[in-house]
Amino acid sequence: MHPALSVIFFTVISGCGYGLLFLLSLILLMQPALLPRSEIVTLLALGALASVAGLIASTFHLGQPQRAWRAFSQWRSSWLSREGVAATASFLPVGALLIAQWQQTDAMPVRISALALMLLAAITVYCTAQIYASLKTIRAWHNVYVAPGYLLLGLIGGASWLLAWHCAFDDGCPDIALGSRGLDWLVILLCIASALLKLAYWRYIDTQPLPASIESATGLGRYGAVRSVEAPHSEENYLTREMGFALARKHAARLRRIVLLLLAPLPIALLVIAMLMRSNAEVAALGAAFAVTLGLFVERWLFFAEAKHVVMLYYAPRGERA
Amino acid sequence: MTMLPAPTTKKLGLVIDLDICVGCHACAVACKEWNDGGQFGPLPDESPYGKEPLGVWFNRVHSFEIEPAQKNASAMTVHFPRSCLHCETPDCVTVCPTGASYKRAEDGIVLVDEDKCIGCKLCSWACPYGAREYSEQRGVMQKCTLCVDRIYNESFDEIDRQPACVAACPTRARHFGDLGNENSAVSKLVAQRGGYDLMPEMGYKRPRRDGGSSTTSSSAAAEEKMDFSTASPLLRWIDKVLSR
């Protein structure tokens, strides 16, 4: 599948934003007074900004972006529509939490808003995943690894940025403040889990055949082995450009190693350094966040570019089995 | 509304006899001509007379070669027109976020309302048959309408109230009619000639074509061919770096 940069940017950045909002909500739900108010406000704004930036980027690949509002209408059948609704709804509890910080309300309204934000953030990322996971035509997407993948990778993105900002916020980060509360360990665990999940996903898609064959696509299998001798047109068309993208498959092995390196060993090493250094730990924590984010971009690019669409069977020179 | 209607009683569709098709592309050209100049609206091409013409076609005629499973049987070449099947359970409709894609309750035709389409392309990803093509010029998805502007057009003589591709077919390989009615000419043809679904394992349900005696087959996977001469400089650079 052709990887549209705007969609990659959208899924990565808004995934990180919702991951950050999810974890911040979790902290607020459990201990509403744990973090200083200024930090809560900054992190809320940061998470919301990432989500908004992603949503705006996602309209860049549309042919008629001025009609994007129509995408809120078909939530009864379309995951893309549901995603838009959930993403927009999540700004309500963000607003409520901002007001609560400003008004210095009791813990109860904060907890309720935090719970709502946690749910909506998770639902939004789940809907994003389902946009792809619901497509039967693409084996690499239509499987059980995709939804957990989006959720976990959103969480690792959000967690690494939360940690980095928290360290930076605590000015020199004398004791990696949240370190004692386990956030750095959580990031390390998420790094390992993400890498393992991606490995399992790649193993799965490498062994799965396409959901159809050229024989069943033409119905000609009853006569023998089928292969294309002549495409309908001598030139490329929308289908071959959009569905026939092959660059990533040529370099898949190398790109996968890059993803794994950026998602696990590199950020983990940086975080261990941060934990040992204690002073100036924010530099290492920021490095880890950047590594994870870059890893997510490559991962998402591969997610699109590696995926094969069944329609390409009609163009395959030899019945492709994948 | 992108929810599917209750199963329609009238199921308009095409039946194509692959034993008769000679691969002349008249259907594809007639379709392009009608939808470009007809009452439906333009189906424009990008640089139609340039080096790399690109544009939407609702019909594309493939040609396949069949290596027979039995020894001494002769090889076959089969021409295969590919277009929208107007599926009974089309995913291209339900994935649409705006309600631009819909399936008509009265006759089962799957259409795109180009005034509502935002051009997200998701419906084209959902279709296994490649029936939907995106128009760069119009910024919306386009697809076969089963010539909805011809088949009910009372200003036409009755004989012309059929899709342009069917009317144009010089060998009468293409037939149009109601597949929901058992007694219609197309339903009888499907029954007589052993009509079958394409990619039945995908579950979109549609009788359409014909076949004959049956054997199964297998073939080896091929190396993907890649031509980077036309790729963007960024992709060429990525390829160069990763190829080291």
Would you give an account of this structure?
The complex is a heterodimer of chains A (322) and B (244). Chain A is mainly alpha-helical and 322 residues long. Chain A folds into 2 domains: 134 residues; 187 residues, no CATH class. Chain A is 66% helix and 2% strand. Chain A starts with a helix and ends in a 17-residue tail after the last helix. In chain B, the strands form 5 sheets. A two-stranded antiparallel sheet of chain B has the order 1-10. Chain B has a two-stranded antiparallel ribbon with strand order 2-3. Chain B has a two-stranded antiparallel ribbon with strand order 4-5. Chain B has 244 residues and is an alpha+beta fold. Chain B has 7 helices and 10 strands. At the A-B interface, helix 3, helix 8, strand 1, helix 9 and helix 10 of A face strand 3, strand 4, strand 5, helix 2 and helix 3 of B.
Radius of gyration of chain A: 22 Å
Tell me the major beta sheet of chain B.
2 strands, antiparallel
SSE succession of chain A: HHHHHHHHEHHHHH
The parts of chain A where pLDDT drops under 50 for at least 5 residues are: 172-178, 318-322
CATH topology of chain B: Alpha-Beta Plaits
**Protein structure class of chain B:** alpha+beta
Spatial separation of the terminal alpha carbons of chain A: 15 Å
Strand order of the largest sheet of chain B: 1-10
Radius of gyration of chain B: 20 Å
